[in-house]
Amino acid sequence: MEAALRELRQRLAEVSDLSRSAGVLGWDQRVTMPVRGTEARAEQLATLARIAHERFTDAQIGRLLDTLTPHVESLPYDSDEASLVRVTRRDWEKARRVPVELREQLTRAAARGHNAWVEARARSDFASFLPYLRENLELRRRYAECFEPDDVLYTALLDDFEPGMTTTEVADVFAVLAPALRDLVAGAPTVDATFLHGHFDPGAQRAFAERILATLGFEEGSWRLDPTAHPFCTSFSNRDVRLTTRYNERDLESVWSSLHEAGHGLYAHGIAGALERSPLAGAPSLGLNESQSRTWENLVGRSRPFWEHWYEPLRATFPDQLDGVELDAFVRAINRAEPGLIRVDADETTYSLHVILRFELEQAMLAQEIALEDLPEAWNARMSELLGVDVPDDGRGVLQDVHWSGGGFGYFPTYALGNVISLQIWSVVRAALPDLDAQLAAGELRPLSDWLRDNLYALGRKLTPKETLARVTGSDAIDPGPYLAYLGAKLDGLRT
Amino acid sequence: MEAALRELRQRLAEVSDLSRSAGVLGWDQRVTMPVRGTEARAEQLATLARIAHERFTDAQIGRLLDTLTPHVESLPYDSDEASLVRVTRRDWEKARRVPVELREQLTRAAARGHNAWVEARARSDFASFLPYLRENLELRRRYAECFEPDDVLYTALLDDFEPGMTTTEVADVFAVLAPALRDLVAGAPTVDATFLHGHFDPGAQRAFAERILATLGFEEGSWRLDPTAHPFCTSFSNRDVRLTTRYNERDLESVWSSLHEAGHGLYAHGIAGALERSPLAGAPSLGLNESQSRTWENLVGRSRPFWEHWYEPLRATFPDQLDGVELDAFVRAINRAEPGLIRVDADETTYSLHVILRFELEQAMLAQEIALEDLPEAWNARMSELLGVDVPDDGRGVLQDVHWSGGGFGYFPTYALGNVISLQIWSVVRAALPDLDAQLAAGELRPLSDWLRDNLYALGRKLTPKETLARVTGSDAIDPGPYLAYLGAKLDGLRT
Question: Domain end: A150, A180, A210, which one?
Answer without folding.
Answer: A150
